[in-house]
Design goal:
Number of domains: 3
Distance between the termini: 54 Å
CATH architecture of the largest domain: Alpha-Beta Barrel
Oligomer: single chain
Radius of gyration: 25 Å
CATH class of the largest domain: Alpha Beta
Structural class: alpha+beta
CATH superfamily of the largest domain: Glycosidases
Mean pLDDT: 91
Helix content: 10-25%
């Protein structure tokens, strides 16, 4: 089966290719990473975007698209619709997909306003074949997206949500030959949205430049009429069993999924699975377990009728259990495990939420591991799928936040949307073994009150029992953590539920700068330090904006020099040691890189300067793990 789909290049009105990076539209910053400096329209983001479910018949649609922004007139009772907000007849510019329109790498660098519509257009040339379906995939579009082939809208309902990927079956809308593909995006940034993350209209403090439109890979894929839509593998480490569950699409049939599993080049097993029913595979002994020190992966090939895919899975467990002293701890593969690593915002000066390349993402992950960290908290962001694939391959635990919005209380009108999008994110990411804990709420953002907070945490624990549920992280934990009735200076510690009542979270999570500190060890949940540190250190010629507004969570008074920064950091590590003995299960240092005005990263925002001696930090982190070992005897 061969996919005959060809994407034609997008041209300006006069036919010339003229893409080039631009400055940040709000700060004027021209900061670029070394990978951003190498970006070119013909080579941008060309890897297969879904590494856990791979087919050969696909075409990347990243590159230059025609682009236009229309602005609607102010809505009034007498004129309820803006006359200008309609599909433009002529597109006079171009944009580099998959970078959001505000980003330097988009080549546009224009802030989208709430009354604007952002339009994309390009031509695709297709040759449909009988018995095949043509799927159009979007890795991420912020916020509301409508898709047209020619005059016809191909989605019954516009897709809303800037974080989760979605797929459109365009088979019945295309004709052989050239087809015009148009995408319309509306993004009000804050209103109506449950997952704004850290985007704001005016960047300040820990909030950053907003972004809109297509921000992950767009691609076409040809599949048979019956195809494998998704899969997941749940590992039972104690029994050496992997449970496969395949979801399929297309007409109902009696077909089974035929699976062959490999360990490297060695063929491990062949078996069949009934779609929608778990199929158990007992792996040969010794079973290879996945961990940050040994990220062992099994690969497999699966066939369903005429469809065939390649995927992978890992054997690993991550649990909350009590150590020999009765203190709840993290357990990886049946053994106590202290987790440590940075808060990772995942922002880039040239692409914002879109990394400039896969190599750029790999650099961040390898740097974190070189510093001796075994974990990263992915903070208020969902990455492209290939990011988690790299964590799987290289060996890095991921604590995954839900990208929250505003906190609106029990009657939060965004709560239903939040839950729907959270489920979409979990469904997308649960196949990646490196993700070991979900963090639904951070510091109260978009968090409802006590009852609905508990309901959310309890739901996700039931929906994905293979992972832990963190928090609420930092604040508004009604079941043994902190609430903030009058701000951070007056935090109040709540009481645990009685032993016979459910506590939905697996951690009680403190945020404190500088810190470190911890909530008291208890017999219900792991005491976890979800954020601390934040030592500010400016590096000349590597600042997003040269201004007195640059800051660090943990201050800058004694960390202005590299020597002062390192001494302060090592002092924090020394203070962590007795906390581990008291029952601390893990800690998250803020943060991987500087971001815009924040200057508290291990690295500068452009990733060109590592502020610390990697060997010194690795040695300090090894002390944490050694200090934990005597306490973590089961």
């Amino acid at each position: 089966m061969k996919l005959l789909v060809f994407a034609l290049p997008c041209l300006l009105a006069h036919g010339a290719m003229a893409w080039a990076p631009v400055a940040n539209p709000q700060s004027g910053s021209k900061m670029m990473t070394e990978w951003g400096e190498k970006v070119a329209p013909e080579t941008v983001w060309r890897s297969y975007p879904r590494p856990q479910l791979v087919r050969k018949n696909w075409v990347c649609l990243n590159g230059l698209w025609e682009c236009a922004i229309t602005t609607g007139a102010q809505q009034t009772v007498s004129m309820p619709w803006g006359k200008a907000n309609r599909q433009p007849v002529k597109f006079k510019g171009e944009i580099l997909v998959p970078f959001a329109v505000e980003t330097p790498l988009s080549g546009v660098g224009q802030l989208l306003e709430p009354a604007d519509l952002l339009w994309y257009r390009r031509t695709i040339n297709v040759r449909p074949k009988p018995g095949e379906r043509l799927l159009l995939h979007f890795g991420g579009v912020d916020f509301r997206c409508q898709v047209f082939i020619g005059h016809s809208e191909v989605l019954d309902v516009p897709h809303e949500g800037g974080t989760a990927p979605f797929t459109v079956d365009i088979t019945d809308f295309v004709s052989p030959g050239a087809n015009e593909l148009t995408v319309c995006v509306w993004d009000p940034t804050t209103d109506f949205i449950g997952s704004t993350g850290k985007q704001v209209f005016k960047p300040h403090s820990c909030y950053y430049t907003r972004m809109s439109g297509i921000w992950q890979t767009v691609w076409l894929e040809s599949v048979p009429e019956r195809w494998i839509a998704d899969y997941r593998v749940e590992s039972d480490v104690a029994k050496g069993v992997a449970r496969f569950l395949f979801d399929v699409s297309g007409p109902a049939s009696g077909y089974k999924v035929k699976v062959t599993v490999f360990d490297g080049d060695a063929r491990v097993a062949d078996f069949e699975a009934v779609p929608g029913t778990a199929a158990e595979l007992r792996l040969p002994v010794p079973v290879k377990l996945w961990s940050p020190d040994s990220p062992a992966l099994y690969t497999f090939k699966a066939a369903y009728g005429k469809d065939s895919i390649e995927g992978y899975f890992a054997m690993r467990s991550f649990e909350r259990r009590k150590d020999g002293k009765g203190v709840p701890r993290f357990f990886l593969n049946g053994k106590p495990y202290f987790v440590y690593g940075p808060l990772d915002q995942g922002w880039w000066p040239d692409g914002f939420l879109t990394p400039p390349s896969e190599e750029a993402m790999e650099h961040d992950i390898r740097t974190v591991k070189a510093l001796g960290c075994n974990m990263m908290r992915k903070h208020i962001k969902v990455e492209p799928a290939r990011y988690y694939h790299l964590c799987d391959m290289l060996g890095l635990l991921v604590l995954q936040d839900m990208p929250n919005g505003q906190r609106l209380g029990d009657l939060n009108p965004q709560y239903g949307f939040y839950r729907r999008e959270f489920k979409e994110i979990v469904d997308t990411l649960r196949v990646f073994p490196s993700i070991v804990m979900w963090i639904p709420y951070n510091e109260g953002w978009s968090q409802p009150g006590e009852f609905f907070t508990h309901v959310t945490l309890d739901w996700i624990r039931r929906y994905d029992p293979t992972r832990l549920v963190g928090g609420p992280s930092g604040a508004w934990d009604y079941e043994g953590g902190h609430i903030l009735p009058q701000g951070w200076a007056n935090r109040v510690t709540t009481s645990h539920k009685p032993p016979d009542e459910c506590e939905a979270g697996d951690t009680v999570d403190m945020h404190i700068y500088r810190g470190p500190d911890m909530l008291a060890a208890n017999d219900r949940r792991i005491s976890f330090l979800g954020e601390f540190g934040g030592l500010g250190h400016p590096v000349s010629n590597h600042l997003w904006r040269v201004a007195t507004a640059n800051w660090g969570y943990g201050g800058t008074s004694d960390t202005a020099t590299r020597e002062g920064l390192e001494a302060a950091y090592l002092g924090l590590m020394d203070k962590l040691l007795p906390l581990i003995e008291r029952g601390l299960g893990g800690a998250v240092y803020t943060q991987t890189t500087d971001v815009e005005l924040e200057i508290n990263g291990f690295m500068t925002y452009d990733r060109k300067v590592l502020k610390f001696d990697a060997a010194v930090l690795k040695a300090a982190h090894e002390k944490l793990y050694r200090a934990a070992s005597p306490q973590l005897v089961d």
